[in-house]
Amino acid sequence: MSARRAPQQHIKIAEHLRGKILSGEISTGSLLPSEAELCEEFYTSRGPVRQALATLRTEGYISSGRGRRSVVLEHEKTETFETFISTHDWIESNGWEASSKTLWMARCPAPAHVAEMLAIKEEDPVVFVHRVRFANGRPITVERSYFSLPVGKHVLYMDPDEGSLHAKLRDVGLGLDHGRREMYGAIASEEDAKLLEIEPGSPTVISKISLSDHSGTPVEYTEMQQLFEGLTLSYNCIAGTPSPLNFSMRNSEIFAK
After folding, report:
1. What is the pTM (predicted TM-score) of this model?
2. Of 78, 193, 219, 237, which cross-links 188 as Cys (Cβ 3.0–4.6 Å)?
3. Fold of the CATH domain 9-72
4. Is 3 a residue whose pLDDT tops 50?
């Protein structure tokens, strides 16, 4: 895996503008600076500026423009890439104290479904980390993570209950670049219900997350069983841009027959 790369110019511009929008410095209904003004501010060409604006439009922060300056839209808070990949960072972003309890961490043969997600052969060695994640001391997620061996061999020397594993991987040059998450409802097994301190058969949400490095190589596959109570999903979408979510019922037993 390659070392962590410096953010590209369009990413820096998008982060700068996003930060101003979230802080209220650029309020809802206000006009963004023009492309020419942004080019001058960031000493860049129109290409990176337009790419940054396209990112903010996709995220639902600004209007489509269409030949005129974009307007800041009313918006929901969205996840950063860090909170997307890291349960620890996500918990802290909500203002809660993050902690975890590792139940098992070891090198093991990859089960068939894990091998498929990591693009390796069944029973190839992977590193498995089984944890319960807590917010303010309350268990909210049971997490089963599988790391490909080139990444997992570093994980084995880390304390999974101290801070964020992903932050530690970034610190040693093992950055991630892309993630995909699938979520669906499921009932809690007796084992996971006990860990989550809920009744067996209680509704929960399963999240399956696949993460890849800068070269597109899959390096982590994680399955999380999360509390259903209080879970809220919100997203922004504007005309002319794809929604960041896809709704379906393909995991429902109703349509499996």
Report:
1. 0.73
2. 193
3. Arc Repressor Mutant, subunit A (1.10.10)
4. no
